[in-house]
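[step 3/7] fold_predict: job queued, chain A
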Amino acid sequence: VQLQASGGGLVQAGGSLTLSCAASGSTFNSYTWSWYRQAPGKQRDLVAVIDSDGTTNYAESVEGRFTISRDNAKNTVYLQMNSLKPEDTAVYYCQSRSPDWFIYWGQGTQVTVSS
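[step 4/7] structure written:
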């Protein structure tokens, strides 16, 4: 199983970015997908989760600004990020978790929000 994250970049505060994470090597319809982020010198934190039935949960800091979605036909999960703030600056990682709790990580994509 391989996860390939993309879509990061430099954006001004208030702007938007969409991250993508494409998976290969398995069928992911039953998997739970998550996005995490890690700022310099800080721990990796959970940002958003989407279950196999489409149920979503968000960290309080991104609630109402970020949207996680999945396209099972493409084995891809997305993170739409709106109203970005400088404190959203981090490396963003996608994670996929199988029903029997095997966990896979993408390589990370840098998001930088300038003030």
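[step 5/7] annotate
The radius of gyration is 13 Å.
Residues 14 and 83 are 4 Å apart (CA to CA).
exit 0
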